Amino acid sequence: MNHGSPRPPVAPARSGVPEHGRVPKYYLVKTQLEDLLGELGPGGRLPTEIELSARYGVARATLRQALRDLLLEGRLRRLGRGTVVAGAKIEQPLSLASYTEGVTRQGLRPGRTLVALDRLPADPGLAGALGVEEDEPVWHLERVLYADEERVGLESTYVAVARVPRLDGDFDPAGSFYAYLRAQGLELGGAHERIETVLATPREALLIGTPPALPMLLLHRRSRDAAGAPFEQVRTLYRGDRFSFTLDLGAPTAH
After folding, report:
1. Local confidence pLDDT in tens for the 255 residues of the chain
2. Bridge-partner residues for 216, per DSSP?
3. What CA–CA distance (Å, rounded) separates 95 from 245?
4. 96 with 53, same domain?
5. Where is the signal peptide (predicted)?
6. How many Cβ atoms sit within 10 Å of the Cβ of residue 225?
7. Angstrom distance (rounded) from CA 184 to CA 164
8. Are residues 98 and 77 part of one domain?
9. CA 200, 213, 246, 40 torsion: positive or negative?
10. Does 162 lie in the same domain as 98?
11. Residues of 126-144 as b/e, b for ≥16 C-beta within 10 angstroms?
12. Is the same domain home to 34 and 60?
């Protein structure tokens, strides 16, 4: 048994600092920039790159790497020809609710613009997901998502034409699809959702208005109606720098 002096408590993890203690110069600049962001507050405009390089005594390339990290993390955002401190990320609950409901709870104004509303024959994969016959007509509804007039995502919804035959005539593409379903007397009973990180395709990045290198959060949802039958398939791409997702968990059950 060791009767010597007690061991000191384990030091808390050092954020971003490797065990060998050698910290890349860009990371030191990033920590200094984080202090500056706190001083400026959301919406505050950063000084120019020339001014920041002089302030921290680093090359422009080093500064840009630090800024790039903060942009990808959603701490900064481009505004015109400048850079400003970003506000908090939008928290979207993982629940069977519409995008409108989730964004509205954040005190933001949701919006959508229509990219396409097409009627097409279901291929084998889509037919299986929607519980229809192959080549049966389905709607493909594609829309850009907005929060306070900022483009933040891209949503593609597939649903059988037989379920909502008048979708192309009496649905407002700027509105909530789930609110439209409820108005038609249709209720969803549940869904399976999967999340992964991806990079947007060039087309998707252009529609959302982001650089292709910006990480995205991709949600795949397959919904069921109140009777448990397949109803819709949704693919939603969210900007990784603007969104986070929340889920309330209950206590584990004993087995």
Report:
1. 444 434 434 443 345 555 556 778 888 888 889 889 888 988 899 999 999 999 999 999 999 988 888 887 778 887 778 888 877 777 776 766 667 777 787 788 889 999 999 999 999 999 999 999 999 999 999 999 998 888 999 999 999 999 999 999 999 999 999 999 999 999 889 999 999 999 999 999 999 998 888 889 999 999 999 999 999 999 999 998 888 777 777 777 665
2. 198, 239
3. 10
4. no
5. none
6. 17
7. 8
8. no
9. negative
10. yes
11. bbebbebeeeeebbbbbbb
12. yes
What is 129-171 written as a DSSP string? Answer: HHT--TT-EEEEEEEEEEETTEEEEEEEEEEETTTSTTHHHH-
- pTM: predicted TM-score of the whole model, two decimal places: 0.73
Task: Assign residue 177 the CATH number of its domain.
Answer: 3.40.1410.10
Question: Quick one: tokens of 208?
Answer: 């959302």
User: Residue 71 is encoded by which pair of tokens?
Assistant: 């942009």
Question: Of 67, 85, 103, which one is at a domain's C-terminal end?
Answer: 85
Please check whether residue 30 is in contact with residue 62, taking contact to mean a CB–CB distance below 8 angstroms.
no
> How many angstroms separate the CA atoms of 210 and 158, rounded?
25
Distance CA(214)–CA(70), nearest Å, equals: 12
- Which of the 8 DSSP states describes residue 45? B
19 found inside a domain: no
Residue 80 lies in a domain: yes
Find tokens 């020339």 and name the residue: 50
Residues in the chain: 255
Q: From CA 6, how far away is CA 39, in angstroms rounded?
A: 41
